[in-house]
Write a structure and sequence with these properties.
The chain is α+β, with helices and mostly antiparallel strands. It has 4 helices and 4 strands, in the order H-E-H-E-E-H-H-E. The termini are far apart.
Amino acid sequence: MTKLKALAAATAMAVTLPMAAPAAAQMEIYENWEPGEAVTELTFVKVEAGREEDYVEGLKSTWVAANKIQQELGIISGFSMYTVPYKDDYNMILRVTFPSGEMMQPNKERYMEFLEAYGKANIEQGNETVLKIYNEIREIQSVAMLREVKLID
C-alpha cells in the first residue's frame, strides 16, 4: 500500500507540475506588465543612537536644500526621510525619486543649472558638513534602486 501511495503522489506531481509552469510563464513584459518610468533611490543609513536629531538637522541644510532645488529644476520628482524603529542594520532611509532613469545620468547642462541655483558655496559647506559631522555619526549601509512594476490590464 505504501508503494501505491508513493506512486499516486508521484503521478499527481507529474500531472500538476506542468500545468503550474505555463501559468507562471504567461506574464510577458510589455504585454502583461511593464517597468515604470520613474526610478526611486533608497539609501539605508545607520545613525549613531541619540544622534538622529543632529543628523536630521544636518540633512535639512544640505540634502533637503539641494533636493528642493533639484525638484524645482525637474531633476527629481520627490524626496523624503524615514525613520526605521526596531531595526539593527539601519534606522533611517533617504528616498529620492527621479521622473525617469535618464534624469539620473550625468548631464553637464543640468549640473551647471543646479550649480547656479544652489551655489558653489552651499556645495562646499555641504561637503564640510559631511566630513565633520556625518562621517562621525552615520554609516551608509546600502543603496537600492527601485522601478515600479505596472500591470497592464
